Amino acid sequence: MVNQESLQAIRRDLHRIPELGFQELKTQRYLLDYIRNLPQENITISTWRTGIFVFVNGEKGSKTIGYRTDIDGLPLQEETGLPFSSEHEGRMHACGHDFHMTIALGALSKLAEQPADHNVVFLFQPAEEGPGGAEPMLQSETMKAWWPDVIFAHHIAPELPVGTITSKPGLLFANTSELFIDFEGTGGHAAYPHRTKDMVVAASSFIVQLQQIVARRVDPLDSAVISVGKMESGTVQNIIAQKARVEGTIRTLSPASMSIVKEEIEKLARGCEISNDCSITIDYGANYHQVTNDEGLVASFKEVVEQCGYTYEEAPMAMTGEDFGYMAKEIPGFMFWLGVDSQAGLHQSKLDPKEDSLPIAVDVVESFIRTLT
Ligand SMILES: CC(=O)N[C@@H](CCC[C@H](N)C(=O)O)C(=O)O
């Protein structure tokens, strides 16, 4: 029985066991145990690394709808104080993937019992937060065999009230690239800075200059964000640091601006090497393609949301990244935001989404799958 109570129980179980990308072994086990307890007549299960595909045969089976949920957590210590808080030190479902998985299990339970006209392929995808599971999952043999005609996914939106759902045709999420920069100079005694190449100073000035790329190199009618989330340097207060490491992320609304930002970062690095007499290496880590929503699918989805009696609003573009962008690049698709009303936002240690949004999401997902022509 899929209801508020059963969905809440699943969500709380999953919330306790967040795991990082491609380490989601307990999560995969939990999902498989749940799925294997559903009626099996209409479903076929296939695992892929730490993820899972589930194919649900439709009554008519003329079309296949893809529905993707992400399954990984974040490297963050939870501070909600909830009785079902994360049992994994320094790991938290602070991006709502526990909600996403629960909604998918709710919809899967309903379809396994009573299939839709169309086939549905559920993708429980690892590593959305990094290093990116969508692109390799898309290239897997199972995906090729069960290739969907359309695909969709969702994300919780803490700033929206429960009962409100938003999306938009066209560009929804940004292009992203991770950014890891290592500086190496010459450390030494803090009393003799002139005999050293101070990497605290080099990295600090580099970080400040990064913002000038956004302000002066990117077309203001386009948009870019460079955020540094972590900086590490030095050993003790009276030793000048030999090394520094800066970790961040780049977001742009077009692939062209992403190239410009990276070219400018390289130039800045060469200048910084000369002026600080140091060496700098740059690694761009995981890169995600922008999410572009299919106009026709969004229009059909809006109708479904309103027919179900919920509020549909047009979403603004967001600088958030989503590796679902790779799927929507290959297959007509879209994402939507689900209102979950939490004072703390995404990637915050006190994120506390309201669980009464769960049955609403299951209702909308199931109705969309059943009514799509
Ligand atoms: C929805 C969301 O929060 N997605 C993440 C995706 C992370 C991409 C990658 N690790 C990066 O930081 O560039 C986001 O931070 O937007």
Task: Describe this protein's structure.
With 373 residues, the protein is an alpha+beta fold. It has two domains: 4-173 and 291-371, 3-Layer(aba) Sandwich (Aminopeptidase); 175-287, Alpha-Beta Plaits. Helix content is 34%, strand content 26%. The longest helix has 22 residues, at 255-276. The radius of gyration is 23 Å and the shape is elongated. The model has no long low-confidence stretch (mean pLDDT 97). Ligand L5K734KM binds next to strand 8.
Show the helix and strand layout:
Layout: H1 4-15, H2 25-36, E1 43-48, E2 51-56, E3 64-70, H3 97-113, E4 119-125, H4 134-138, H5 141-145, E5 150-157, E6 164-167, E7 170-173, E8 175-184, E9 188-189, H6 199-216, E10 224-233, E11 239-240, E12 243-252, H7 255-276, E13 279-283, E14 287-288, E15 291-293, H8 295-307, E16 311-314, H9 324-330, E17 333-339, H10 357-371
Parallel strand pairs: 3-4, 3-5, 5-17, 6-16
Antiparallel strand pairs: 1-2, 2-4, 6-17, 7-15, 8-12, 8-13, 8-14, 9-11, 10-12
The ligand CC(=O)N[C@@H](CCC[C@H](N)C(=O)O)C(=O)O binds next to β8.
Distance between the termini: 27 Å
Radius of gyration: 23 Å
Portion of residues within helices: 25-40%
Assembly status: single chain
CATH topology of the largest domain: Aminopeptidase
Number of helices: 10
Give the structural class.
alpha+beta
Mean pLDDT: 97
The CATH level-2 architecture of the largest domain is identified as 3-Layer(aba) Sandwich
Overall CATH class of the largest domain: Alpha Beta
Total number of domains = 2
Give the biggest sheet: 8 strands, mixed
- Topology as a string of helices (H) and strands (E): HHEEEHEHHEEEEEHEEEHEEEHEHEH
Overall geometry comes to elongated
Strand arrangement, largest sheet? 1-2-4-3-5-17-6-16
Q: What's the total count of β strands?
A: 17
> Uncertain regions: pLDDT < 50 for 5+ in a row?
none
How large a portion of the residues is in β-strands, by DSSP E? Answer: 25-35%
